[in-house]
Design goal:
Heat Shock Protein 90, single chain, mainly alpha, 3-stranded mixed beta sheet, 12 helices
Length: about 375
């Protein structure tokens, strides 16, 4: 086989690897589109807006009996009764709508409105009795909507006893037991339902926040892995391509060897990117040291490696492998060094990795340094 045939074979191999990378990229985009459709479906299943005061307005129909008495003229001083009914309904609407906002629910104006409702309900119940006693359960409902915490139970109990006492004065034990029980039940049930609704909303918000943080963390992981992988791989490809260009005029066999290395690096990069996409990539210190030796030699940098101490666990090896990869990438790209020394000293308690060179080039890539800090910060203290 002539040298030209060898070059053609290497070019065809590189083109095949490029087609494989394009196919992998298309599969990745298809997976992204599928994930987007799934997210749209989950958004469609998202519950509607939180409840508002409109949910408690239908209970005002309990006052229809009093309104009917006013229309039929069975209420003495109907103008006073009508004004009292209008004022009570206005205060009820004011309190219930403010009860669905935590800050407004705890405000002084809401508490003052509740006190005014209590005084007005007492006056109407003592003055008219009968159907006007049903304002106490409505007052209990407003109390259950506006109050939370340990004071709710005590307030609801005192309110029900007070309602029973007023009802006893106007209608005897029959009205007292029914109104007292209805007042206590309306306050407790309303508070329980609204409290449960708020808890569900808060849990759902917390779950969405956790999901958002998980997605953000995955994006950061992928961008970090992609930077580390492509930064190192492209640096090696550039260095070996320059070496092949320099060697081609005088030593075609050495140039073919460099091109073969480029093919191997490209294929390995495809595998690593595929593993980075799926999140299953784990580095190996021995593998990274071998690649570092090849990359440094191609860049005319003398590699000097030494490793001593106890064997390392897989997690520590993977972490050190990433650090070696980033450090060697910076040496090749920025240091203009002639010699690079990597030493690994491990004990049972801690591991020390030292990378030094004799270069005088520019500083390392900020993104690479941040990625290395993220990895070492996420690892152990070794």
């Amino acid at each position: 086989m002539t040298r030209r045939d060898g070059l053609r074979r290497q070019v065809r191999t590189w083109q095949a690897a490029r087609r494989e990378w394009k196919a992998e990229h298309e599969r990745f985009k298809a997976a992204q589109r599928a994930a987007g459709k799934k997210r749209e479906c989950s958004d469609a299943e998202h519950p509607g807006p939180p409840p508002t005061g409109f949910a408690l307005l239908p209970w005002l129909l309990m006052g229809l009996g009093s309104f009917s008495n006013l229309l039929q003229g069975r209420t003495p001083n109907p103008w006073i009764g009508g004004l009292g009914l209008f004022t009570f309904n206005s205060l009820y609407i004011y309190v219930t709508f403010r009860s669905f906002d935590r800050a407004k629910r705890r405000s002084v104006s809401t508490r003052v409105a509740l006190v005014l409702m209590g005084l007005l309900t007492t006056g109407l119940a003592l003055g008219y009795g009968g159907d006007w006693l049903t304002f106490f359960p409505l007052l209990g409902l407003a109390v259950g909507a506006a109050l939370r915490g340990p004071w709710l139970g005590r307030t609801g109990l005192l309110l029900s006893v007070y309602a029973a006492a007023v009802s006893y004065v106007r209608g005897g034990w029959g009205d007292a037991s029914g109104i007292g029980y209805a007042t206590f039940l309306s306050s407790m049930v309303t508070a329980a339902i609204l409290g449960l609704s708020e808890a569900v909303r808060e849990l759902r918000a917390a779950r969405e926040e956790l999901a958002r943080r998980a997605v953000e963390k995955e994006r950061l992981r992928f961008s970090r892995d992609l930077h580390d992988l492509l930064g190192h791989t492209l640096s090696v490809i550039v260095v070996k391509s320059e070496a092949a260009r320099r060697l081609a005029p005088r030593d075609m066999d050495a140039a073919l060897a460099q091109i073969t290395d480029i093919e191997s690096v490209g294929r390995q990069a495809l595998t690593e990117i595929r593993e980075a996409v799926t999140g299953y990539r784990e580095g190996s210190l021995a593998t990274e040291l071998t690649r570092a030796r090849s990359a440094l030699s191609a860049a005319s940098v003398e590699p000097v490696f030494s490793q001593s101490g106890t064997p390392l666990d897989p997690q520590t090896e993977a972490l050190l492998g990433w650090v070696v990869r980033e450090a060697v990438t910076n040496v090749v790209r920025h240091s203009r060094a002639g010699r690079c020394e990597i030493r690994v000293n491990g004990t049972a308690e801690r591991v020390r990795l030292t990378v030094t060179d004799d270069g005088t080039g520019a500083g390392a890539d900020d993104a690479g340094g941040a990625g290395t800090q993220d990895r070492t910060g996420a690892g152990t203290d070794d």
